[in-house]
């Protein structure tokens, strides 16, 4: 029997997606601040301390501990709970923060736990615990791209994470290994062995332009990968927004800037 609220959903959009959550009477969904899009009448919105789960233990100190973990991952102490206070089914929607895809994760079918990059969480059924996952290996923590701390989602309900670009899901068999750019790793199931591997070859490390380390993932389990990490997108936009324009083959060169006003 599930302990988390059972919710239904629909995904809308392609590159800029939103998820529409359908709530029966008294069902609740929790979400990160800033992800709300719109809601039907009878939906009651409430700011809560932590994630509303009982994973941190009962009582005030349990809530303090559970919410305090979120500060370590750079998130707010508070989340927002949306509850259907009416008698009929109602909907509430949440939007992705940047171009990419929303990934629905049924934790009851994924071993009850998912480890993901710390800014990936979007929303979840009430009862799902949003905590932190410390990397056990020193090398993984120092060079893994996400530091020692990642986010973990635990429970038996639905959770939704967001990542940039197109999302690929890979199922790894026992002993099967996948090497991934550290920024492209979105999430993985609890049985995946996650480590960091140094790029072999001096020329590859110095001139390859792909960084010095791979994320090494070994099965069994599932992994989710993104084609466009937000850090890669931000650095590319920044490179075009500073200094003079690269005319990219224009025969006018700098004279083109005078003609178009830039």
Describe this structure in words.
The protein is an alpha+beta fold and 262 residues long. The chain has helices at residues 59-72, 138-143, 202-207, 230-241, 255-260, and strands at 8-12, 18-23, 28-31, 36-39, 43-49, 78-84, 90-95, 100-106, 113-116, 121-125, 129-134, 149-154, 158-164, 167-172, 177-181, 185-189, 193-198, 213-218, 221-226. The strands form four sheets. Strands 5-6-3-10-13-8 form a six-stranded antiparallel beta sheet. A six-stranded antiparallel beta sheet has the order 11-12-9-16-19-14. Strands 1-2-7-4 form a four-stranded antiparallel beta sheet, with no helix packed on it. It is globular.
Kindly summarize this structure in a few lines.
By secondary structure, the chain is an alpha+beta fold. It has a single domain (8-243), classed as 4-Layer Sandwich (Double-stranded beta-helix), CATH 3.60.160.
């Amino acid at each position: 029997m599930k302990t988390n609220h059972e919710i239904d959903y629909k995904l809308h959009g392609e590159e800029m997606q939103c998820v529409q959550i359908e709530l029966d009477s008294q069902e609740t969904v929790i979400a990160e601040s800033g992800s709300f899009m719109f809601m039907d009448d009878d939906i009651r919105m409430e700011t809560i301390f932590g994630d509303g789960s009982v994973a941190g233990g009962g009582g005030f100190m349990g809530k303090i501990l559970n919410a305090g973990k979120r500060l370590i991952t750079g998130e707010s102490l508070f989340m927002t709970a949306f509850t259907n206070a009416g008698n009929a089914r109602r909907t509430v929607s949440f939007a992705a923060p940047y171009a990419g895809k929303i990934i629905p994760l049924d934790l009851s079918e994924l071993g009850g736990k998912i480890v993901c990059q710390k800014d990936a969480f979007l929303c979840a059924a009430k009862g799902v615990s949003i905590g932190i996952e410390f990397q056990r290996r020193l090398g993984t923590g120092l060079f893994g791209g996400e530091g020692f701390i990642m986010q973990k989602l635990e429970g038996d309900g639905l959770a939704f994470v967001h990542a940039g670009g197109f999302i690929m899901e890979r199922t790894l068999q026992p002993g099967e290994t996948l090497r991934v750019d550290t920024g492209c790793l979105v999430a993985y199931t609890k049985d995946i062995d996650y480590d960091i591997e140094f790029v072999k070859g001096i020329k590859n490390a110095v001139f390859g332009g792909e960084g010095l380390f791979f994320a090494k993932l070994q099965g069994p389990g599932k992994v989710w990968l993104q084609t466009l990490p937000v850090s890669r997108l931000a650095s590319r936009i920044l490179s075009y927004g500073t200094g003079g324009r690269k005319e990219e083959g224009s025969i006018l060169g700098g004279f083109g800037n005078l003609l178009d006003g830039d």
